[in-house]
Design brief:
With 523 residues, this protein is of the alpha/beta class. The chain contains 15 helices and 14 strands. Among the domains are: 43 residues, no CATH class; 237 residues, Aspartate Aminotransferase, domain 2. The strands form 4 sheets. It has a 7-stranded mixed β-sheet with strand order 1-7-6-5-4-2-3, with helices on both faces. Helix 9 links the parallel strand 4 and strand 5. Bound molecules: pyridoxal-5'-phosphate. Pyridoxal-5'-phosphate binds next to helix 6. The site of pyridoxal-5'-phosphate (PLP) has 13 residues, from helix 6.
Amino acid sequence: MSSINQSGWKPEMGNAGDTAPATYTGNKALMLEEALIFEIGTAGTTGVDLAEAPKVTARLGNLERHRDIGLPGLSEPETVRHYTRLSRQNYAIDLGFFPLGSCTMKHNPRLNERVARMAGFADVHPLQPVETVQGALAVINELAVWLIQLTGMHGVAMTPKAGAHGELCGILCIKAALEARGDPRSVILVPESAHGTNPATAAFAGFLVENIPATAEGRVDLAALKARLGPDVAGVMITNPNTCGLFERDMREISDAVHAAGGYVYCDGANFNAIVGRVRPGDLGIDAMHINLHKTFSTPHGGGGPGSGPVVLSQALSPYGPLPFTERHADGHYTLVEEETAGERHPHSFGRMTAFHGQMGMFTRALAYIMSHGADGLRQVAEDAVLNANYILRSLEDVLEAPFAHSGPCMHEALFSDNGLAEGFSTLDIAKGLIDEGYHPMTVYFPLVVHGAMLVEPTETESKATLDQFIGALRSVAERARAGDTSLKSAPHHAPRRRLDETQAARKPVLVWREPDQAVAAE
Ligand SMILES: *Cc1c(COP(=O)(O)O)cnc(C)c1O
């Protein structure tokens, strides 16, 4: 490990600080400047040489386009350079440590990529006859069996395409179950610390959302929750481990109370990576929980690819799950249960969430990850993720306030606040300082229950050397913020772009466009 700078950053230590002479091109050595595509493209340029399109009769009537809409044209080499240059200004898990809390930016094993690219998986089409895609259906089924086993639940809906989509699936199951028993209810209770998708999902499904307060420990206030339960409460949505990085120890008691009051328990399982192999949500009385395959089981996400959010369901909710799903027959052959074939075996389904069976590329990657780790390896994933987060928490709690450090060990993420920074310095300054140090910042200002929150999730795939260097960098930046080092207020100094005026950017966005045959206009 080289050059951990524990002593504090000084501008002259940088290699391209403000005092460096400007270059003719605007480039900084091999870090190439790149203009907007609208500034470099021209209407007449094209990267392809196609024959003039034959005249066709307009079928769109008034909607037919009569003028050029002014899209910029580039030649092929210009196009390749434009996007490659932009990609070099981007940050990725394959470039460095990515401690974005709640997002689980773990390494994506290359074995998964290899498997996902096998022609039998990569080239199948969802409308192919099922006899020709038996292997793909077997993968979906095998993954479903693993998810049911790992969670101790009764069934699983594989089709939701992300965590938030899974939330909607689970809440629609709850709604269908309540309607089926002739007991429509109007309220979903959500803790204050919840991810924004939870209240958004409940509201989208037509429920009123009410907050449950947190205790000083950072966990759900059980007494307040019990006091609010009643015949109008459809259910609760609780994240476990929660977004303060803590395990909800009262989960079993919460579930029992909600069930006794006739409601259902939705668990936001985005943080399942902290407990996989150690805790089965089914044992905690959960009725529905989404699993972010792209977090817990390492399938690429963010700029790297789509997500997948299967929802495991209790026995009570399974009859209401969506179509289609795969079914394995005694002779080992697979079919799809769809509207036409659901018949009497699945008459209560709330319907269909997606056109087809789900995110095949994510299924193959997640199953490859699960099978290459095995049951014991998955348990170690959770243990190492928790160990790494506690290492970060305890290594930095002397320079950054850790509001729940007294609540016991954290789970897979360490939470800090901006308490103790010099007057006028904030979490944003620390995040920008980390960019200069070459790190994607941690999650900032979430969860909302902590002032100036900084949520660091190291994941299990980082080495101790990587964690030590990050701890050194964050310590250095935090010390500068505590000491009131004003150079931090204008960080980043070394990034392709300096600090943005975020208020200005939100209130007066600059939109650049080109009217046909005119120069670039900007406002
Ligand atoms: C990531 C996350 C979600 C949403 O998942 P998406 O796949 O991004 O839709 C919901 N809740 C929590 C706690 C999360 O971390």
